[in-house]
Amino acid sequence: MLRVRTLDLAVSAMLFLLGFYIIASGIGFGVIDSGTPGAGFFPVIVGAGIVLFSGINCLKVLRQNAMLSEIIGTTEIMRVVLTSIALIAFCGLASPLGMLVSGFGLMVTIAIIFGARTPDMIGRAALAAAVMSGVLYLIFVKFLAVALP
Amino acid sequence: MVNEFKISRRSFGAGLAALGIAPLVPRLARAATYPDKNITYVVAAGVGGGSDILARTVARVIEDKKLLPVTMIVENRPGGSGAIGYNYLNSHEGDASYLGGVGVSFFTTPLLGKMRYNYKSFTPLGALARSPYILVVNSGSDIKSLDDLKSASSLRVGSVGAVADEALLSHLLNKEMGTQIRVVPYDGGGEVIGAVLGGHLDLMWGNPNEMLEQVRAGKMRPLAVSAPERIKELPEVPTFPELGYDINHTQLRAIVMPAGVPAEAVAYWEGVLKSVAESDEWREAYLDRFNEIPLYLDSASLAKEMEATSSRYEAMMKELGLLK
Amino acid sequence: MLETWGLLLNGIAAASSPTILIAVAFGAVVGLFIGALPGLGPTAGVAILLPLVIGFDGTAAVAALGGVYYGSQYGGGVTAILLGIPGDSAATMTVIDGYALAKRGEAGAALGISIAASFIGGLVGLILLTTFATTIASAAIAFGPVEMTAVMVFALSLVSVLGGKDPIKGLLGLCLGLWLGTVGLDPIVGIPRFDLGSAHLFDGIEFSILAVGLFGLAEMYNTHLGEAEGENQIRFRMRDLLPQPRKIIRCWRELGTGSVIGFIVGVLPGAGATAATMITYAVAKRMAKDPERFGNGAYEGVAAPEAANNAASYGSMIPMFALGIPGSGTTAVLLGGLLMIGLQPGPMLFQTQPDFVWTIFGSFYIGNLALVAITILLTPLLASCAFVKPGYLFPAVIAIVAFGIYSINYSMFDVMLAMAFGVIGYVMMKLGYPPVPLILGLILGPILERGIRRTLVGTNGDPSVFFQSPIAVVLFLASAVMLFWPLIRKQIRNQRARPATN
């Protein structure tokens, strides 16, 4: 469970800091380079914009505390986190297991995350994933000749 | 229909074989002798670019002349200004079934970033051709000869990327002639040609292949060539050295292998590349077609060239403030 | 002019030979398919097919490659509408209204508009390409860094309408997009910027990876599973699977402006089809009487960008045919193809190889007609995808996305990047950050930065040149008018209202 207001505030604060980081890096790249705008010229302007607008947004959220009392459910957050972990695992396992095997695992995992809970549904999802792996093999290996790990 | 064809951006040789165009290369039964595996030519750039065309032409000549008992596969690994491709090649240390072409990014990208490789991490095999640069202006320009550059003020020259041969040559030009030409980097050779045609740039450097059509169409005027000898198709255009300027920089079309490959493999490829460089097929399909200068360098002379080239880039990048 | 049409008719006749017809059909179908795969766009499509088709004879090879190019523009829209994932980067703007329509159950109608818009945009682009290529090419080279800066300023002034409800969050998104556009090797001095110490980011952030994450993955995370299933069962009607001509005709204005603006932006150096779709979408929203509908499933919001990206693909061929220089990433690969086939592209191509050029143009006309037929026949089948249960659809889609993105550069890093943008997109969606300003910043920012810095490097830092180019001055004035348009309109209304009250 997460209140949208808390998230908004946290994101704005992070962006505020990011803005300063961008400005600092921009100064490091060189704002003016022999009389013309250097590599840091754009980043400094953009970073300043991020600092300014995220600052304004922070203040706005702090003032109107009643507005964004919406809540994001735990299930939904878990879904995002688990899908991301599944994708990271897919990338990591692609070279030891092979991308097609790893992709099969990814599909079954995501089917479970998105609602397949009973053994029967998981079985059907696994079947669909197996068929899809075949399709992916045809498309990417046979047709596009991509060298999959 | 789709399934019948083996479409491949990476495996040109295999694609041709599947199409039934190329004769099937006989596999020799002597498994112990090199080469016993298919050879992969890694191109650290996308399909259709200069280094890709070079790779595919080399592969075609080798296949036509049956110089290899195995198949040569061209594999494109673009991205990261060459870093992705050269990293990939470098990761096959000691494996003589991988080779790759040498481009500008081969030298400059490792100088810029903290790469796991630099030009010393590869085994030079040989060079097959080299390509000079022609300095040109828009044909409507007031600049008629190299001497007009000295009197003209506030000139702009195009370059493909910040760290590139065009930038290097322009810095040499400023040093040699005392001019104050400013280098404006663009993202591609076509953009630079367009900017010269539109009058947004005053000068540009281009390979003969890029420039000849523009010169023949009367859109551009050549001023000088960055090599000791004149170009066959443009016999009236002088070279920088003959005008007394020490501007001699050409692009080498060279081939390398990962580090730590056996000496027999190097000797084997020196032989193969020499036959390619001296073949009529190579002359027709590459040298004449792209107006490049014939050349063959063996492994040892290429190693020397690579060292000299890298130090030229390093010197320029130091002057530009990119390196400490 | 008459002569041109004669040449073109001969070209169409020559392109009707069986070999070329097969090549065109082959290229168009492959293009449609590659365009529909998320992450892979026309550049990848042409690159994938190039090594194969050089086995064909020269004209057939280029006809097939051309087919891949415009076929993928048709295909990109399909994925955008059905799955909310841009099939290629030029289809990103199509997601906004197209996917909203599909969610409403009108996938068939949206696909129909996308096909019609692709055809009309393609036809307008083709007619302009065949009739005025040389004239347009000489006009296009008048656009140097100064003029491109002005074009981008104008584009950014237009897109101020695309902000969404919260202007602060819109601006914040724009700044973030502009920042992401600076990642990679600096285009002017060459030092790496924000590369996280990795060479993977040296060439910048691949737009299609960001778009796939920000739109596709984020949208999936945000789906309310229970609701979506219930809704789908109610809304499934046969009629919704078919294109609807009446709705297409209603968008005639957007189709026209989209085609023309898309074509013009496509010709400009370094702008590209994606920028063209953004500008036309903004223009369509500006011109609309009720702009609020845009973003919530407006037919016009599909018509404008789809017409634009197809017209732009022909626009970008103008520099290639008339000047021998590539006008976009895809035409650069096409040019490489011409070289491999043994043709020398250059400013004399129209004179030295007229048969080749006109046969190719003829094949483009034929290819477009073929694509309309193919896509209309496929529409009901494709539209039914929108009604597949998320439990089955999502795993398959995520797998295709992962494989597709991997194949762009053979890089798992890119897959991770898409995942990260998926999470970022989800958070943005929850907090009401509009995604459009961010992608605008990423596409338009680099062009603007290059324009400004190239200009100033050329003049040694003197900015006065920006006001010496008539084209630029006109565009700057137009930008000012656009920015203050809401105020100006208010004034005009007040003036009109005053006599009435008096």
TrEMBL record, chain A:
Q: Which Pfam families match?
A: TctB
User: What are the transmembrane regions?
Assistant: 7-32, 38-59, 80-113, 125-148
Keywords annotated in UniProt: Membrane, Transmembrane, Transmembrane helix
Task: Identify the species of origin.
Answer: Paracoccus aestuariivivens
Lineage runs: Bacteria, Pseudomonadati, Pseudomonadota, Alphaproteobacteria, Rhodobacterales
Q: Which residue ranges does the record assign to the DUF1468 domain?
A: 11-149
Q: What name has this protein been given in UniProt?
A: DUF1468 domain-containing protein
From TrEMBL, chain C:
* Keywords from the named record: Membrane, Transmembrane, Transmembrane helix
Q: Is Transmembrane helix among this UniProt entry's keywords? A: yes
The family database entries (InterPro entries) matched by this protein are listed as: DUF112_TM (IPR002823)
Q: Which residues form the DUF112 domain?
A: 21-440
> Do you know which Pfam families this protein is assigned to?
TctA
Any transmembrane segments, and where?
12-34, 46-70, 76-96, 108-130, 136-159, 171-191, 260-284, 321-344, 356-378, 390-406, 465-488
The record's section on PANTHER family has: TRICARBOXYLIC TRANSPORT PROTEIN
Question: Can you say what this protein is called?
Answer: TctA subunit of the tripartite Tricarboxylate transport(TTT) family protein
